[in-house]
Structures are given as C-alpha cells and as structure tokens.
Specification:
Blueprint: E1 3-10, E2 13-19, E3 35-38, E4 41-42, E5 48-53, E6 59-63, E7 71-74, E8 78-85, E9 91-100, E10 108-109, E11 113-114, E12 121-125, E13 131-134, E14 142-145, E15 149-156, E16 162-171, E17 179-180, E18 195-196
Parallel strand pairs: 4-9, 11-16
Antiparallel strand pairs: 1-2, 3-5, 5-7, 6-8, 8-9, 10-12, 12-14, 13-15, 15-16, 17-18
C-alpha cells in the first residue's frame, strides 16, 4: 500500500503518485574514557608504573614507547598518553605528565683494609643528606668498624630520592714468623743462636 500524494490526469489517463516511508533505529556506541593513574613524580634511576583504568579495553597503545598492555613502567619524566579501543572499534585517549625530582648521590670514603694495629677504622659518606642508613644499622655520616667485609650505605634527600654505595674493607694478611738456627740437640753449656725472620717491629 501507499499513501496517495498526487493524481495527475493526462489525456484521460490518471497517474497516481504514491509516497512510502521507512524507519531505522541507529544506536550510538559509547566512547571509551580511559584514565591514566600513577605517581606524578619520578626520581633518577627509578621506575614508575602508569595504568590505564576504566577498562578492560580491546586494545591499548602507549606513547612514547611501545606498550600494548593496560600499564607500562617508565624511567624518565615526561608526557605520556594512551589510546584505547573498545569492542565496538571506538577510540579514546588520555594523557598524563610525570615530573622529575632532583636526585642524590652516595660516596663512601675510608681505608681499603684494616690492619692488625687498628682497633677500628672510620668509613664516611660524603655530602649532606636527610636520611642515612648503613648496613650496620647506624644512621650517622661516619661509622667505626673493626672487622673486614662489605659495608653499604643508603642516603635519602628531601624529595625522597635515594642512592646507595658499597665499600669493601679487606683485612691485612697475618704474617707468621719463621725461626732459623742449627738443627739437632745442643750439648749442656753450649750456646745456640736462633734468629726470627725480619720485617717485624717487635
């Protein structure tokens, strides 16, 4: 059937013009709205994890970098973005800025070995730091140790950035004295000369 919209007569012939209508429903698929979450700052040498929330999504593409998953680990400050695609093929993007913090450094100075004459030797970490923690548990800039081995220190600045250094303290090798002299058995009243090896102070 149709709706008659016009009738035209031409030489006794009637022409009927009809109009038909049809309808279709178009649904709008939702756009993905990813949100990047993570630490907003990073220390030198540190790794910060960024995660795109709001999913899961069909695919992820991070920039800069080549990350294709929900999250990435970054090592440098900068601006990062992620583009996600949902199951309908619709895309959404979010960006995130990570700022760099001032770093710190740790340098231990001290002797390379402890000698027999030493009751203790000093190890010192250079610089001024908010927090200091030695492997011995001490929290001062200088420690005194009397045994050989490896010592380490971790320092932290006001921004929470850390640095670590190691120092190997060796031990002076023990020298055994050697006695030289004639072998055999001395006769009563006979004088025998024995001599210790050199390079001893007493």
């Amino acid at each position: 059937t149709c709706s008659i919209v016009n009738v035209v007569s031409n030489n006794g012939v009637n022409y009927v013009y009809c109009a038909k209508s049809a309808s279709i429903t178009v649904e709008t698929n939702p756009l993905p709205e990813p949100l990047i979450e993570g630490e907003p700052t990073i220390c030198p040498g540190e790794t910060v994890d960024l995660v795109a929330t709001g999913g899961p999504y069909y695919s992820y593409s991070w920039y800069p970098g080549s990350g294709l998953g929900e999250g990435i680990g970054i090592h440098e400050p900068g601006n990062y973005s992620v583009t996600v695609t949902n199951e309908y093929g619709c895309k959404g993007t979010d960006s995130y800025s990570v700022s760099g913090l001032p770093g710190t450094s740790a340098v231990i100075i001290g002797p390379s070995q402890i000698t027999c004459a030493d009751t203790a030797v000093a190890l010192k970490v250079l610089g001024v730091h908010d927090q200091i923690l030695w492997s011995t548990g001490a929290d001062t800039s200088t420690i005194f140790v009397n045994t050989s081995g490896e010592y380490s220190v971790t320092v932290t600045n006001a921004y929470g950035c850390t640095a670590e250094d190691f120092h190997n303290l060796g031990a002076q090798p023990m020298t055994q004295p050697q006695i030289s002299g004639p072998s055999g058995i001395a006769c009563p009243g006979q004088t025998v000369h024995l001599q210790a090896s050199a390079n001893f102070s007493s």
